[in-house]
Amino acid sequence: MSEQQFLDFGSSKVKECILALKEIDFELAYLAILTCEGIKPLSRWEKPLDKAGLELLQQIGLLTRQIKRTVKTGAEVIETIFSRTPGYTQLYEQRFGNTPIDKSAQTQRFEGFLFGYPPCCVEQYIRQPYAPNNLPTEDQKILFHWSCKDCKITPTLLPAYKTIYNRLNNYLRQ
Ligand SMILES: [Zn+2]
Predict the structure, then answer these.
(1) Is the dihedral angle over the CA atoms 81, 15, 23, 59 positive or is it negative?
(2) Residue 128 Cα, ligand 1 centroid: separation in angstroms?
(3) Residues with CB under 5 A from ligand 1 (ion)
(4) How far apart are alpha carbons 86 and 128 in whole angstroms?
(5) What percent of the chain has pLDDT over 90?
(6) Can you list the pairs that 101-108 forms with residues at least 24 positions away whose Cβ atoms lie under 8 Å?
(7) Which residues pair with 76 in a beta bridge?
(8) What pLDDT is stored for residue 1 in this prediction?
(9) Model confidence over 125-171: pLDDT tens digits?
(10) Which value, in Å, is the radius of gyration of the alpha carbons in the chain?
(11) At residue 107, what are phi and psi to the nearest 5 degrees?
(12) Ligand 1 centroid to residue 118 C-alpha, Å
């Protein structure tokens, strides 16, 4: 990660929020920090999240929205999205609000753009999901996109992901 950080990790309020998010789910806290730091323009949380969880995200500076979607059976699901930037939450809501969940190539490209995935990896994933890449397993597992083979962008993103992942892992109540 560059020297410029948006979250003040030294602040006790920020620390409390991150620890509380981590207690809900490690991955939620990880996504929240990646999004706060601008590594991901927008993130989506597909598991239920209550008002207290939403408030934690808001307290560290994220804008949140809950979006109604439907699945094939017609059942309604609620997705939580969060971003530092109102434009991204608006784009997501305009495009996907009250729509059925779909995995079309067009949707994957748009989601990849919003979620900060390298376009080369998105295209590869559309052609063939989980195609073998040269990434060490421990690096691949901390990413939210599947790296394409010999990716030029993923290696430039990895240091920021690693820094945040390790920091969150070592972030404990004293
Ligand atoms: Zn790539």
Answers:
(1) negative
(2) 13
(3) 118, 120-121, 148, 151
(4) 33
(5) 89
(6) 101/69, 101/70, 101/71, 101/77
(7) 70
(8) 43
(9) 999 999 999 999 999 999 999 999 999 999 999 999 999 999 999 98
(10) 16
(11) -65, -45
(12) 5
